[in-house]
Design a protein that fits this description.
single chain, 670 residues, alpha+beta, Alpha-Beta Plaits, Multidrug efflux transporter AcrB TolC docking domain, DN and DC subdomains, five-stranded antiparallel sheet, 15 strands, elongated
Length: 670
Amino acid sequence: RLYPTVIVSVAIPIAIIGTFAFMYLLGFTLNMITLGGLAIGLGMLVDNSIVVIENIQYHRNLGGGQKESSIQGAGEVAIAITASTLTTVCVFIPVIFLGGLPKILFGQLAAVVTFSLICSLMVALTLVPVMAALGRENSRRRVLQGLARKIEIYEGRILSGYSKTLYWILKRRKWVYSLALFLFIASLFALKFVGKELMPETDQGEISITGELPVGTPLEKTEKIAKNISAMIENKVPEAELVMAMAGPPGFWSEAGSNGINIRVELKKKPVRKRSTEKIAGFLRPHILSIPDFKSHVRLNEGFFIFRMLRGGGERIGVEIRGYELSKSLSLAKRISGIIEKIDGVTDTDIDLKEGNEEASIFVDNNKAADLGLTPGDIARTVSTYVLGTVSTYYRERGDEFPIRVELNESDRRNRSQLEELPIVTPSGKHILLKDIATIKRTYAPLSIRRINQERVVTVSAGFAGRDLGSIIADIKERISKLPLPEGLSINMGGEYEEQQKTFSGLIFGFILAIMLIYMVMASLYESLKHPFIILFSIPFAFIGVVAILLLTGTTLNVYSFIGVIVLVGVVVNNAIVMIDYINLLRRERGVGLVEAVVEGATRRLRPILMTTLTTVLALIPVAIGIGEGSEMQTPLSRVLVGGLTSSTLITLVLIPCIYVSFEKSGKST
């Protein structure tokens, strides 16, 4: 029928307009996150209206008047759609209050989806019944009548077949429980084959190449090598649209000097090129690594600086060696680096402790100095004056001041032998040489020393390609656990893995909190502790579809797919709510027997359940396919919802009626 379809379609623009007004009041902008929320919620916007209009049409088909059917049809499902909307909204509350990375990435998304669903509920309870009551009788005219009649015939056969199958299944409930349990356990086993990472790599069409030549390399040589690399990229990568190279220090944040090289490669748009950014980076990596004395890193540019910083910045793998003695830490870091670079999929290993320029370290003999009335501080100040100079006074002319610095001539302080001959004046006026009271040694000092919680840290970092973070971390842990650990040192996994552990722990808490909130909402609406518990059985079996679609599509379990699991908790219970609510109505108000009520209620709600599931899944498919640059962010969430909704719907239609009958019969027997 055309008119009911128009009524349902009205819910989408009205809910979206209301959501835009809400976004305007809160100061939200149209960005990747808010638009992603609208895309994800688009299919759910019509769910409530579908359930209402379908029930109204059912009463119309029984011979009821337009107004009476609208009132009765909307009234029967009001509690059910309110409960289903509130359960969906409940799952976003933990996301908003979790804080950290989930709140940054999904705070606005949760707010947008929540308000759009509330708007759709208001439309379904008010506008839909009014439009149905005001519709003309001739609106029953069918579009493509021949096709419509065939659809009705097949629909009747499906409903009849489902009803007969349900009667047969209810007599063999143990088989259903065994099969459902087997599938659930199998999905738990298959989960270990799903890759894990914090955030998926995005194909933004940019590659970053950074590296360093040996310390002290002249800028002219560095510039020449940078130009050679740029020319090589332009010749070997036809997808390159722009190559920008910079020799020397990129800015204040970098430790590199004249030996540093930074190259950014912008590629053509994703639809135009045949190779992905990751494949092009993999192609360039061996060519860059073949350059002598050039320690390089080839990585995909995230495009969004905040995403890279949320990962911890730099490379995605980090092994932290903590301890005071840097020499021991550096020795252990070199051994770990050698182990990590042999692991399949690991690229661009590096140690962040860089040796700086040569230094002359002066070790004072405290006993000799004390005998002469000198302190190490006196000697340090004297040497500093000779080498660096000391401002003794200022020359003033016409209001300007010019410092007068006293220092040795440059020719008298060029090498270590001259440093040893520096004269030191004792308090008694005696002149001695520096070598008489101190030893001078040549050393190399690091460019910088990193500390975490006031503890010195040396980090072995690396990137990876072709594998997921979780499996690589497992290999690293297994191999470095066999290394003997020097006294005073400890090893911790840092980088993206550390942030992943923190984020996943928070999301697990959010998952549990979402289930508790859903149960409390349903218990308060139904004034029952048993029926909400039955509805919750639809949640674990959605996990079967989640694991299946992650494996089939090669999608990792990351923060986006984890959020999808939490959202799924609130969505999958909607079908069971609609079914259980109507079964209770049949038993409470019409006195139908247990099995008959279950079969009739499940059969009666089969059509709206399939329609709402299909609208949600079909709306998510374009996002789940992942078309366009940056689509990798929303794709995992959408795929989880598609897989979980599909499996949960199929299992709910069979499992929930069986559990309902078992619970009710056990209640009577006790």
